[in-house]
Design brief:
79% of the residues lie in helices and 0% in strands. It is mainly α. It is built from 14 helices and no strands.
Length: 287
């Protein structure tokens, strides 16, 4: 056996257990769900469940709710993450370590506990409403709990680290001399961000946006606890169909719709990132 074949055999042996686990834990369950959604009781192919989903405005509205809430959470996480990521990438090691600890520390706490904590903060008599009333911003409590706003706040808190870390890594790879050159040429801080930092950090933004969007659209605990019965999203619908109504076939169809939407979001994010990166590279080359 040649050395090249031995290397391939060794790599195959190393990758084999992980690949086998992924097949058993991901590919097989998804294949079973897909088969259950397309086969009737007599094992005949049918699209009746998908027709039922897309012909019912309530189900389509639930899908749109999931997409909209995930989009809002991704946009809000981006706005919050950029200052943190920039500080993490540009400040000294001490501040960087502190920001990193503060960013990833919530990951050590259960999502259920954090969601219950947000229930206390967002309720009508909670600290947020009371503080806004004391400051004179509002005259009476506004509904934050059991609303889309509350769900978005909870999702941003849960998935913010997945936006900060890729952004910080991308910003750290940007040559500081580019920002210094823009400053010497008279560019203000906002212009330096828009024309230097933002275009060059697109790969990190794409990675973070993909992670936050796909995680938000498939989140169950946070929408269930902070949205209540009034905010219906796809994961709660799946749980209702499978656990309450015991309709496994339709629940499988809903799960497959959610899977396809998540994959579509990943493809769109990376396609847009590739186009923006190419345009940025072409602009730098033309200069």
């Amino acid at each position: 056996m040649s050395s090249r074949n031995r290397d391939r055999w060794a790599l195959g042996m190393l990758a084999g257990p992980g690949a086998a686990f992924m097949v058993l834990a991901f590919v097989v369950p998804v294949a079973v769900l897909a088969a259950s959604s397309f086969l009737d009781a007599d094992k005949n192919f049918t699209i009746e469940r998908y027709w039922r989903f897309f012909s019912d405005t309530q189900y389509v509205s639930t899908l749109w709710n999931s997409i909209r809430i995930a989009f809002y959470a991704t946009a809000a996480a981006t706005l919050v993450a950029y200052p943190l990521a920039y500080a993490m990438a540009r400040l000294g090691s001490g501040w960087r370590s502190l920001i990193l600890i503060v960013t990833i520390l919530p990951l050590t706490i259960s999502v259920v506990i954090r969601s219950f904590g947000w229930q206390i903060l967002l309720r009508n008599g909670g600290p947020i409403n009371q503080s806004l009333i004391a400051l004179g911003v509002i005259d009476e409590p506004i509904r934050l709990l059991y609303s889309e706003i509350g769900v978005v706040i909870g999702l941003v808190h849960v998935f913010l680290p997945f936006m900060v870390l890729p952004l910080a890594s991308a910003i750290e790879r940007i040559d500081r001399r580019l920002e210094e050159a823009a400053m010497i040429l008279g560019a203000s801080a906002p212009r330096r961000f828009l024309h230097v930092v933002l275009p060059l950090s697109v790969p990190g933004l794409a990675a973070g946006a993909t992670l936050v969007f796909t995680a938000s659209i498939s989140a169950y605990v946070t929408p269930a606890l902070l949205g209540g019965e009034g905010i219906q999203v796809m994961p709660t619908m799946v749980a209702q169909q499978v656990l309450t109504l015991m309709d496994w076939s339709f629940g499988s169809a809903v799960s497959m719709v959610l899977t396809v939407v998540s994959l579509g979001a990943v493809i769109i994010h990376w396609w847009a990132a590739a186009r923006l990166t190419n345009r940025s590279s072409q602009a730098e080359t033309s200069k």
